[in-house]
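forwarding from the other thread:

> can someone predict this with flavin-adenine dinucleotide?

sure thing
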Amino acid sequence: MPVDLSHIQIQKKPFESPTYDVMDGAARWEVKVHDHGLIALVDAMPRLVPQGQTADSAIVQAARVSYGAGTKKVNEDRGLIRYLLRHRHTTPFEMIEFKFHVAMPIFIARQWIRHRTANVNEYSARYSVMPDRFYRPTVDNVRQQSMLNRQGGEEPVDEMTAQQFLDYLAKTEAHYQEYEELLGKGVSRELARIGLPLGIYTEWYWKCDLHNILHFLSLRMDAHAQQEIRDYAYAMFALIQPIVPVVAEAFLDYEFEGVHMTRLEIEALRTGKPLASDNKRENAEWEEKRNKMGL
Ligand SMILES: Cc1cc2nc3c(=O)[nH]c(=O)nc-3n(C[C@H](O)[C@H](O)[C@H](O)COP(=O)(O)OP(=O)(O)OC[C@H]3O[C@@H](n4cnc5c(N)ncnc54)[C@H](O)[C@@H]3O)c2cc1C
């Protein structure tokens, strides 16, 4: 039987006050990252917001659903948002969403995709030919293996080694010609791609709610994240900051630039004694926090 919707009446109600587009009527706000990368904001929810307010207002609207529409003043809204973030409320922040178009090397995409709470649509290298674009760090950004952090690299290596590394990348990129040649000979795209290096660029659309974006940013803007993904995370933060300025400020105040303390750390702070733990890593983390607090 065909679906009959004729009895459903949709009432289209205008906004109660004049609105503006939070993206200033632009199709995208784009930030170039590295040599071939980019992150572009392509849509936001809410896109239209009452004049004199920011998209932050969607959080207040959701949080106050039980008290009726916003009769409160802007500074009270700010206080409410800061309270909600400080007290780790989540769902009001999920009322805001952002959609990004991102071009990044595959080794970054692999880290990024671990954030499961987003919706993703990626370029298909089974369906399409991978473009000839590779990530190469600059000579002064070829980093040494960190002695403290097994996953990290901080200080630059000497120039000769840096150059050797870049030559090594150039050799892996040279496989691209063979990739094209084999495609020309009829090898399927899904197989031909497997000889390409991790530095080749992929693209996707990535949509996520603000609560989970803040979680992403707190992990990926952090100094422990690899610098290349950090560069994207900072660009993402710069893109959303003008749209949700109150949340962005609260995020820096209470989350990103704050310090979470363990019971042992509070005890050490209270008594002035060393941390009651012989775990090297825990002690190093405590040292990091003490430095951050200027102790
Ligand atoms: C510096 C750094 C180093 C890392 N190193 C490694 C590594 O060596 N190896 C490795 O494998 N990974 C590594 N990761 C990835 C990391 O372990 C997480 O997988 C990644 O950061 C995503 O975090 P998340 O699960 O909190 O985020 P999301 O997937 O975005 O999830 C957000 C939150 O939603 C909830 N959630 C989402 N999905 C589920 C679910 N199915 N069930 C229950 N709750 C859910 C959880 O509370 C979660 O915290 C690293 C990450 C960072 C930042």
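Residues 114-117, 151, 212, 215, 219, 224-225 surround flavin-adenine dinucleotide (CB under 6 Å). thats all i got for now
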